[in-house]
Structures are given as C-alpha cells and as structure tokens.
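Many introductory courses stop at the sequence. We go one step further.
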Amino acid sequence: MSDEVGMIGVCGIGGVGKTTIMKNLHNDLQRETRFEKVIWVTVSHPLNVFEFQKKIADAMGERLRDDEEVMMRAAALMEIMRRVRHVVILDDVWQKFSLKEVGIPDPDVQNGCKLVVTSRSIEVRSYLRCKIVKVQSLSQEESLKLFLDRVGADVLQVPGLEEILKLIVEECAGLPLAIVVIAGSMRGVDDVNVWRNALVELRDHVKSVKDSNDEIFKRLRFSFDRLDSLEVKNCFLYCSFFWEDYVISRRELIEC
C-alpha cells in the first residue's frame, strides 16, 4: 500500500470477489509490522453508526460508553484511533457517511494510517474521495478453472458433458461467487441430462436481468431452487433474519 494514498475504494458488482480480495489483504497486513492495528468491519445496511462505532472499538480492544451520544462516542473513538498506526477495512458499504461522525481519523501521509472501502456504490466512493481500484470479472479461462476446481475435474470424463459445462460457466458471467455456488450444486452429478436441464434453468434465471445489481442474485437463485427439500430452503431463508457476519449457532437453526 503506497504511503501517498490514504483512502482506497475497491469497487465492482456483487459477487465479483471484493470481499475475498480484502480478506486476503487483511490476513497479509496482519503478518506485517508496519501497522499496529488492522481492523475489519462489515458495515450494516442500513447504516447504524452506534453499532459501527462499537465494532471498531471492539477491534481496537477498547470499549465505548453505551450511555453517551453518538458524537461523544465519535470523539472518544477518534482519540483511541489516533494513538496507533492502523488500517481500517470497511466491507460492503452501501451509503455515504462522515468519517468524523463515526470517529475515524482522516488517513494521510503524516499519521501513516489507511482506510480501505469496498462498495458497489459509485456515490459512496466519490463521497469519501477514495483512489478507485476496480475488480474485474474473471476471464472465461479463469472461470472454467475455478469451476472445475469446485465441481471436480473428473466430470470432464463424462461423454458429451464438456460443452454443456462450458456453457454453464459462460452463464456465470465471470462472477466467482456464482461459479463457486453453482459448481457446488452440481458436484457429484454425472448425468448429462441433468446438466442439460440445469443449463436451461440457469438461462431462464438470468435472461430477465435488468441491471448489474441483479446479476449475482439471479444466479444464486438458481442454486437455491436446486436445494433438495422445502425444509432445507426454509432453513436457508431463516438465516436471512440474522445480520451479515452474525455467528449463527446450531441450536438456533435446529429450533427454527
């Protein structure tokens, strides 16, 4: 990470791999010594500043007073963060916010701190004045390799299947999340007719896409529709009641 750049905005459509790239960066930075703290926060949608502040403070090993107003907590958090050279990675930011309102110091050359934001929103990235890094979709060759890694390369030994498989990979549009999920749903299937039907179903799911935000959803819906039973589908949908990155216990799933 260049010393001259304080804020970086990692952009791209949903499912293109922004979060995966940032997790790898987070792990790499934790092994380095130039930053005292490397902070990861998944930002809630809609934005809850109080909870946002708590997540950052927890990552710093500090506590903020629950009985204080947001601006008082922001001042306290700002003081805490100014003590150490840090990197803050904010994943999945959907709306504009003020760094000062939250309590995040402006990163610059003098303090040596960094802020990295992942977002689909051009508005967010422009508002925060980030240097933009765009994550591109995978090439057809890269997509095929990832798909085979997940589904098992031995599937190519099934007569008549290779061409259908390549067409399914094309429908994934170079989105790693779609490739991984769809390959997982087809793993262990060696019936060409099942693969052919899957291709038709997948095309039916994606043909009505109207904007980039729908691209990943339509492909994931294909995988959801292929779940074995209504019970499994309901269990999956139940998980949507929990906020992102919440650790769901087995007991909670069983009781649902």
